[in-house]
Amino acid sequence: MSPESKKLFNIIILGVAFMFMFTAFQTCGNVAQTVIRSLNSTDFHGSGYTSMAIIYGVFSASNLITPSVVAIVGPQLSMFASGIFYSMYIAVFIQPFPWSFYTASVFIGIAAAESDRRTVFIALTVISLVGTVLFFLIRKPDSENVLGEDESSDDQELEVNESAQNNMTKAVDAFKKSFKLCTTKEMLLLSITTAYTGLELTFFSGVYGTCIGAINKFGTEEKSLIGLSGIFIGIGEILGGSLFGLLSKNNRFGRNPVVLLGILVHFIAFYLIFLNMPGDAPIAPVEGTNNIAYIKPSKEVAILCSFLLGLGDSCFNTQLLSILGFLYSEDSAPAFAVFKFVQSICAAVAFFYSNYLLLHWQLLVMVIFGFFGTISFFAVEWEAAAIVARGSDYRSI
Predict the structure, then answer these.
(1) Helix (H, G, I), strand (E, B) or coil at 327
(2) Among 20, 37, 63, 393, which is 20 to 30 Å from 381 by CA?
(3) How far is 301 from 271, CA to CA, in rounded Å?
(4) Do 345 and 57 meet the contact criterion of CB atoms below 8 Å apart?
(5) How many helices (H) and strands (E) does the chain have?
(6) 297 with 217: CB under 8 angstroms?
(7) Is the pLDDT assigned to residue 371 strictly greater than 80?
(8) Where do transmembrane segments lie in this chain (predicted)?
(9) What is the CA radius of gyration of the chain?
(10) Which of 318, 162, 207, 342 has its CA nearest to residue 255?
(11) Residue 333 and residue 319: Cα distance in Å, rounded?
């Protein structure tokens, strides 16, 4: 197999593996609070919000050391270990106990009816494990330096020792760079935008589905609407990601218009959710809520908002990843580690306060962070445009 074919093969394997893993995990996260709430009437007492807060809290801290770990262990083994932890978390739902539920939440950060629930989560666990095993199919690139026949075993041992020392040096350097980047002007400004993506990630991946499942006015379809909502969030993500990702190379107007579209789409979604859903929906008891907001709860509006949430999120994420790749093109790993650190810690905070805040307060927090996050992104983008004016090829990103 040629080097180009091997690279393509690895990309396909990675894509399929992550598709299996995150299909299972995102589905699990979307219904976690609803499932756990239904179990609280038994001997089990826990919170899906608290579980996700633990996951993203540990995840945020782990991101700062991730480049160092990957430099030492290698990407293949790191991804396999992460897949095992993801599968462990999902498997806990088959027969949940509070201690195992929250313990699995910690480990994953580092990386309905009783019978129906077990069947669903057994299937999700198997799907996640299939994705994890696929990582072993990744093929290592051919070594560029082939040892000559006259090289001794001492030379080979010396090269191995030098390689180990280089890995340790890379690990330490990556850790230091991650901390240094946190204090730069550009990263501080982008951290506000990143914080907003963490808050809205929490909302559409965990809170919004719980709100839909808690509204009794939706009738007997309230629980099935959670799955439909997740599908339309995914459609919005796919549409926005493919559209803005492919068009970004030929975009003469920069990234700001896409981010502006994203915040406008989200503000429309937040306003419709405010009108459509009662304030106590995120923290309603297992019996649900019979309260009505400002309009009669509409399934069509709820699903439309799911699509808008996914579309707006794709606008922000595509442009954030693009500008980070542009500003830190020579050494992007520490920059993306800081990005995931800020996003994850804000997601953890949001999952924590989702246990207590009514819906309209959660929407207000996102509106405030979304407004200032957009302004801060504009400031960094204008600076990036100035860099382009001095000779860098902006459209080749």
Answers:
(1) helix
(2) 63
(3) 11
(4) yes
(5) 14, 0
(6) yes
(7) yes
(8) 12-33, 53-74, 86-113, 119-138, 187-205, 225-246, 258-277, 359-380
(9) 23
(10) 318
(11) 17
